[in-house]
Amino acid sequence: MLGKVLIYTGNGEGKTTAALGHAIRFAGYGKKVAILQFMKGRKTGEYKFLENNKFIDLYLFGPPFFLITTQSTLLGWMKGKGIEFVSLDLFTGKKGKKRVVADKLGSSLKKSSFEVHKKKAKKGMEFAKKLLLENKHKLIILDEILYAIKFKLVDEDEVISLLERRKNIHFILTGRFASERIIKMADLVTELEEKKHYFYDEKKTFSGLDF
What we know:
By secondary structure, the chain is α/β, with parallel strands linked by helices. Helix content is 37%, strand content 18%.
């Protein structure tokens, strides 16, 4: 049987959590699962819970923090520019010389630069190819890989080539911006739509709910 390709995309919350649900279900039958988290480098709640599970292997392929203002700097990132500061104009619409640090959480912006993200994403793809050849994990989850493609950290052709060689291994891809090419070759596509989110009012995230 040819492995299935499942896609969880859209601007709503729940893409990673849906994939993790599949991982738990799969592991419940004693089958090995590999979760590769692109653009993520922190040990979040799911990592802490799953790191000792003998059927689920979780790997991080990203800096400790992803720039909070990446949404605003998307065009710069797609051109390969390592944007570390963002003009207030992007948020206020007013011209001025004041600038803000893109991510106050990072002890050093260099740790979350475009080049660092790209280097780690490349390692993630190389590792995914290695897992495919080993054929030990019957489900491989590429978490946030669609984001990585959009930001040009990973080449879409490389991802498609990987999926085409999947044989009996199932793949789950998550992230926003699923392309028509990816959608066309998928067996299941779920698009999550955001209707409401507390973050826009409270401007903060919550452990356990968000990470």
